[in-house]
Specification:
The chain is an all-beta fold and about 475 residues long. It contains two helices and 28 strands. It has helices at about 15-20, 435-440; strands at about 55-60, 70-75, 85-90, 110-115, 125-130, 140-145, 155-160, 170-175, 185-190, 195-200, 210-215, 230-235, 245-250, 250-255, 265, 275-280, 285-290, 305-315, 315-325, 340-350, 360-365, 375-380, 390-395, 410-420, 430-435, 440-450, 450-460, 480. The longest helix is centred in the first third of the chain and has 6 residues, at about 15-20. It is globular, with a radius of gyration of 20 Å. The protein starts with 16 loop residues before the first helix and ends with a strand.
């Protein structure tokens, strides 16, 4: 019998380039790869101390005594990077957070971040697509947790404008300036074809300043995975307004941002497991990276999954300029094998400080030795010609200096994230393994260096270290990271 496909949805990119360039009030927001600092904090600096923080979901955690209610953990950056000790855990039972913890809500299934109320603190958007809303089973909810000098404090619910028209509101999220007014907007997807843009100018008491709807094309309905399963933001045509990418089971569709709402520009690649955005060749246009971890029967690109980069240009995403990476690509360690799920998670960031974003690619079903579905992560290098397999790095729990050991069903690489947490100018690689220790879950942080990612000083901690107990359930800490 074929190995089942790993169907946890992947994470969106968190913030588009146009927001970074245009945010008013003197604030400059950082992109997923790192570079620009804000006047009083970064878009993922939730406590405003000038260091980028790491937000990780544990959607199966017990909260308020309720099984699988879910929780999120923020580990704070510092001059020494990320550690287990500097953390804050939040659930729907936390003071000021809308709603309450309920069985099987899975709070923290989706995460995105950005400074939505323009106060200089990063805010965290949490999607809870399996939450029951009144009598609407799995109606889904979206909550903004507000950054402050003490970290995430309190929250505001974003109401579903079309609750009767779909389920799982909040199953995909992205933050970007989709309307071109210099304010961060929030895009939200569900099982329907409707995508909602909640307009910037958010307040803690009133939420969004307004909303726009557009309907995505060729969206799968009636068969899991339904609807808009990924969203990403990026300024592919460099016009100062972010475009929005809609990922579905049937394909990826790029919509050009505009004040009146997004309009379709192009289709880019097969149905995806994950999306991320960065300007890998630094030509001034964002590029779109698509992970296809489970190729269809008719897709002969690779047996075990692949990652495709579509380069941006004056007309937007240019599907005639693309590069495909598999485990058979020259310079990429390993071999293309069925069921590896290469491309199951992606993240972009400059790991060696050369000014070019690099790409982390996970294969959470990669089997190593006698252990099955242990998982592994690769880092591909960016450069003037774009991404290349030359000099690619490979990491698993058997890599020298990486804590732990490969075990079956660890799912090392279930989530990946690249950000500079210690302000040394190089992105650090965070890796989640939701299956570690029988689905307790764990996180690893490997530091960036002038030669790339290094295992020297590697940090590793599990769910219990950040206050999440098993209590007979499976927390799956590390299943999702904001910005991956």
């Amino acid at each position: 019998m074929p190995r089942p496909h790993h169907t946890r949805s992947r994470r969106p990119v968190v913030l588009g380039a146009a927001v970074a360039a245009a945010l008013a009030g003197g604030l400059v927001v950082s992109l997923p790869g790192g570079a620009s600092a804000a006047a009083s904090g970064l878009a993922d600096d939730f406590n405003g101390d000038g260091y980028r923080d790491l937000a990780t979901g544990a959607p199966g955690a017990v909260a308020g005594g309720k099984a699988k209610a879910g929780a999120i953990v923020v580990n704070y950056g510092s001059s020494s990077g990320i550690s287990a000790a500097r953390h804050k855990t939040t659930s729907q039972d936390s003071t000021g957070v809308p709603g309450g913890s309920e069985t099987s809500d899975r709070f923290g299934t989706e995460l995105a971040h950005g400074d939505l109320n323009r106060d200089g603190y990063g805010d965290l958007v949490v999607g809870t697509p399996l939450e029951d809303v009144g009598s609407d089973a799995d109606g889904g909810s979206v909550t903004i947790l507000w950054g402050s000098s003490s970290g995430l404090t309190g929250g505001t619910a974003i109401s579903d404008p079309n609750a009767s028209g779909h389920d799982r509101f909040g199953q995909s999220l992205a933050v970007g300036d989709f309307t071109g007014d210099g304010k961060a907007d929030l895009a939200v997807g569900s099982t329907g074809k409707d995508v909602w843009i909640f307009k910037g100018g958010f307040t803690k008491s009133g939420g969004a300043a307004g909303k726009l709807r557009f309907d995505a094309t060729r969206i799968n309905t009636g068969d899991y995975p339904d609807g808009v399963v990924q969203l990403a933001a990026g300024d592919f045509d460099a016009d100062g307004t972010d475009d929005v990418v809609v990922g579905s089971f049937k394909g990826n569709f790029v919509y050009r941002g505009a004040s009146t709402g997004p309009t379709l520009q192009t289709e880019a690649g097969e149905g995806s497991s994950t999306l991320t955005v960065a300007d890998f060749d630094r030509d001034g246009h964002d590029d779109l990276a698509v992970g296809t971890d489970y190729p269809s029967v008719t897709d002969q690109t690779a047996k075990g999954g692949y990652a495709t980069v579509f380069y941006g240009g004056t007309a937007g995403v240019d599907t005639t300029r693309s590069a495909v990476f598999t485990q058979d690509t020259a310079g990429v360690p390993g071999a293309d094998e069925y069921w590896d799920s290469f491309g199951s998670a992606l993240a972009a960031g400059d790991v060696n400080g050369d000014g070019y974003p690099d790409l982390a690619v996970a294969a959470n079903f990669e089997s190593i030795g006698a252990a099955d579905q242990t998982g592994a992560v690769w880092v591909l290098r960016g450069g003037a010609s774009g991404l290349t397999g030359t000099g690619a790095q490979f990491f698993s729990q058997d890599t020298a200096g990486v804590p732990g050991a490969n075990e079956s069903s660890d799912l090392f690489g279930d989530a990946v994230h690249l950000a500079d947490h210690n302000k040394d100018g190089r992105a650090d690689l965070s890796i989640g393994a939701a299956g570690e220790n029988s689905d307790d879950g764990a996180v690893w942080i490997l530091r960036g260096s002038t030669s790339g990612i290094t295992t020297t000083g590697a940090v590793n901690f599990g769910a219990a270290s950040v206050g999440i107990g098993k209590a007979g359930q499976d927390p799956v800490f590390g299943d999702v990271m904001s910005g991956s």
